[in-house]
Amino acid sequence: MNRILSDIWDGIRSQPGRTGLSFMAIGIGMISLTVLLAVLGGLRERSRLMIKEMGANVFAILPQRSDTLSGTNEIHESHATLIASNFPGCMVSGTRRFQAEIPGIEGTITLIACDEKLLDVRQWQLLTGRFIDTHDIKTFERNVVITKAISNTRGWEIGQVVSIKNEPFSIVGILAPGNDALETEGAGSSISMEEKSIFIPLSASKLWLDPNQGNYYNLDTIFIRVPETANLPGIMSSVQRVLTGPYEKADRFSWITPEVLLRGIRRLQAAIGFTVGSVALLCIILGGTTLMSLMVANVRDRITEIGLRRALGATPRDIAMLFVLEACLVTGTASIVGTTFCHLILFTAKQYLPSPIHLDGGTFLAPILLSIILGIIFSYGPAKMAAHISPSEALRND
Amino acid sequence: MTNSTPVLQIKSLTKNFPTPDGHVEVLRGVDLMVERGDFVMITGPSGSGKSTILNLAAMLDTPTTGQVIFQGRDVSHLNDTELCEIRKKEIGMVFQKFCLLPHRSVIDNVLFRFRYLEKLPHDMNSHAYDILKEIGLENIRNRSARLLSAGEMQRTAIARAVVLRPGLLVADEPTGNLDGASTHTVMQCFQKLNKNGLTIIMVTHNQNLLEFCTKHKICKEGILV
Ligand SMILES: Nc1ncnc2c1ncn2[C@@H]1O[C@H](COP(=O)(O)OP(=O)(O)OP(=O)(O)O)[C@@H](O)[C@H]1O
Ligand SMILES: [Mg+2]
Question: Interface pTM (ipTM) of the complex?
Answer without folding.
Answer: 0.92
